[in-house]
Every structure is written in C-alpha cells, then in structure tokens.
Amino acid sequence: MAQIELTNVSKTYHDHVAVHALANINLAIEKGEFAAAVGPSGSGKTTLLNLIGALDTPDSGAIRIGELEITSTPAAKLADFRLRHLGFVFQSFNLFPVLSVLENLEFVPALRGLPKPDRVHRAEQLLEAVGMIDLRDKRPDELSGGQQQRVAVLRAILPEPDLVLADEPTANLDSENAALLLDMMERLNHERAVTFLFSTHDPAVMSRARRLIRLKDGRIVEDQVPKR
Questions:
Q1: How far apart are CA 104 and CA 123, in angstroms?
Q2: Domain architecture of the chain: domains with CATH
Q3: Helix/strand/coil (H, E, C) string of the chain?
Q4: Which of 145, 166, 133 is nearest to 48 (CA)?
C-alpha cells in the first residue's frame, strides 16, 4: 500500500473566474521517497501539497495517507492527524519571532505532550547533528534567511513525522544556503526514512529529487525517476 494515494482529485478556485488548479489527479507516493512536484507558477504544485497536507479540500476525488482517508475525515481528527503525522516547511519560514530556536523546535512536541526534558534533549541532539547547536538560544531575527529555513526544516522533522511537505523551500535562499538545506533534508531522508514531497521550480531541488512529478495546467504531464 502506498503511503500517499490520490484518486481522481480535482480542485477549482472561484474568484472572478473559475481557475482549475488540479484536474483528475491520480498519484501514489511510497514511504521514503524524496520527490518533487515541478512546473511553472500556476501549474498546481502548491495546491497539490495543500490538499495532501489537509490544509485544503478537493472538489472531488479521494486522498489517502496511510490508512486514513483524509477527504472524509472530520476536521478535529484531521487537525490531530496533521499534528502527529505531518511536517510542513513553508517558503516564508513561519518561525515564532518571540521564541528562541530551541523553543521553536520544542513547540510541536510540546503540543503532543512530550515532557520538556525529552523534547529539549531531542532538539539539542538534532541541532548538534547538523552543526547548529550554537544557534539554540537565538531568535529568528538574529538568524540569516538560510539559517531560518534550516530551523524551519528541523522543526518539521523533530516530531518524527511520516511525511514532510515542503512548498518552494529554497525560494528565498541563495545557492549556497539552498545546497546546505538540501544536504540536510537528504540526510534526514536517508537516516530517518522520512518521506519528502516538495513543490518547486528550482533546478537545484529538481537535481536532488529522486522522482519528478511534472505538472502543467493542473494535470500531471510527466512522472519520472531521473537517471543519475
């Protein structure tokens, strides 16, 4: 059984005109994949991630993650599912400005009820593992953009989710910081078997992905495993 499965999923947004963001998408993603949804702006990449992450709902079709059919799950249960199984990385970082790096990392484990000594220990271990322990007491405004984005990834990873959804994670980074971020995510994927699904049009991300799901006008036009 695939970890993620979409069956005939469609989504249309209605503003002044109808925008068909996704049309009849069928997709399966296995556990441990390092995959990227790619395509130009407006191709449906972000909508795809938002639907898989249960941040939005499709107009038709079904989405299953593991054993849970998320399109027919009540909102309260979905919120708990996101908390316990999903990690999100947004291009705007979304760190809490009044909290330190360590406190940002602790936030989701605290919501899950993990005792403070345990969550501090796990956060410090992860920071040490990626060479960022010296940033533990700094606040986001004391960090560079690249450092903030790496902290955002660590925050998504620390609760040990089954799946990390990363929406244009390198969009605000220079090439050096993008490479550092991708190195870290690849390492976490290999060592912890966390599934990663990106939305991107960045060639640097595309060159690292082990599967490229190419979208155009809301449809999958190509699904390939690049030759290395």
A1: 9
A2: 30-58+74-224 (3.40.50.300)
A3: CCCEEEEEEEEEEECCCEEEEEEEEEEEECCCCEEEEECCCCCCHHHHHHHHCCCCCCCEEEEEECCEEHHHCCHHHHHHHHHHHEEEECCCCCCCCCCCHHHHHHHHHHHCCCCHHHHHHHHHHHHHHCCCHHHCCCCHHHCCHHHHHHHHHHHHHCCCCCEEEEECCCCCCCHHHHHHHHHHHHHHHHHHCCEEEEEECCHHHHHHCCEEEEEECCEEEEEECCCC
A4: 166
Per-residue model confidence as pLDDT tens for the chain (228 residues): 568 999 999 999 987 788 889 999 999 999 999 999 999 888 999 999 999 999 899 999 999 998 899 988 988 888 888 888 898 888 777 899 999 999 999 998 898 888 999 999 999 988 987 888 999 999 999 998 888 888 988 888 888 888 999 998 888 788 888 888 888 889 888 888 889 999 998 899 999 999 999 999 999 999 998 876
Q: Residue 66: which residues within 8 A CB-CB, separation 6 or more?
A: 1, 3, 85, 162
Both tokens of 199, joined, read 């939305």
Backbone angles phi, psi at 87, to 5 degrees: -120, 140
The 10 Å Cβ neighbour count of residue 205 is 23
Cα angle for residues 164, 83, 129 (degrees, 5° grid): 50
Spatial strand order in the sheet of 195-200:
86-89, 163-167, 195-200, 34-38, 211-216, 219-224
